[in-house]
Amino acid sequence: MPIHEKSLIRPENLIEHKDLFIDGIDVSGHWSTFINSRALTDYDESMQEEIAALPGGENIHRCWQCGSCTNACTVNALNPDFNPRYWIYLIRNGMKQELLLDKDIVWQCVSCNKCTYACPRDVNPEGVMKATAHWLELKGHTEKKPSMIFDEGFSQQIIETGKIEDGLVIRQFFARTGQKLAQNWLVAMAIGLAKRLPVAMGIKMGFAAVFHPRTRGWSRARAAIKDYVHEREAANRKALGLPTGEDGR
Ligand code: SF4
Ligand code: SF4
């Protein structure tokens, strides 16, 4: 069959013939490219259910494949392979092997939520991207990605202190991901901020960077949040049939 948009087909599924004669007719050349036929036998019927059980993935079943999410997506504009609509299609059809081909870019969602506002079915595609990235990690298909490392550091600081100190979040993130702190963009931003920031605010930020202040009377809230996080993580693992760590199960 003729192929109108070759870029949408993986190169390994294309068959091109430099020299091809059919019934004595020369059909060599670019236009006679064929798509490799294939039979899918490895459907994973539990994949949609498992991703729907993770926070953010709850409404994946509502998707009607209109493509508005991908159309609005910030990352898709930079990298056409980042395609929320397509991944939701794969998940809903249990096409795990196809999804795994893109496992190293799913985490790149920047949580801008443009897709969420564009979606006519309230699927929350941003949440589905997060749930999918989380699923890939919990199932051992990918190692912990930078977005997860950032989220963990951010949450950990809120849970421990009841406050966010941006400088500490960034320093810890760079340390945990093996990156140098003196990034060019960060230095430029710090210089720009130093020029514009009111002196009182600069002093306040410097104080926070050194003393890491905590919210007063935070201990009860901290204990309650830790219990909730622990419960939630156990529930996520249970939904995926993984050991929860409780009672050795
Ligand atoms: S939240 Fe993620 S998936 Fe949605 S538009 Fe932004 S980058 Fe794309
Ligand atoms: S915008 Fe919503 S309904 Fe449309 S493809 Fe994306 S997730 Fe599905």
TrEMBL record:
Keywords: Iron, Iron-sulfur, Metal-binding. InterPro entries: 4Fe4S_Fe-S-bd, 4Fe4S_Fe_S_CS, HdrC_iron-sulfur_subunit, Helical_ferredxn. It comes from the Bacteria. GO terms for molecular function: iron-sulfur cluster binding; metal ion binding. PROSITE patterns: 4FE4S_FER_1 (PS00198), 4FE4S_FER_2 (PS51379). The keyword Iron-sulfur applies. GO terms for cellular component: plasma membrane. Pfam families: Fer4_8. Residues 54-83, 97-129 form the 4Fe-4S ferredoxin-type domain. The keyword Iron applies. This is 4Fe-4S dicluster domain-containing protein.
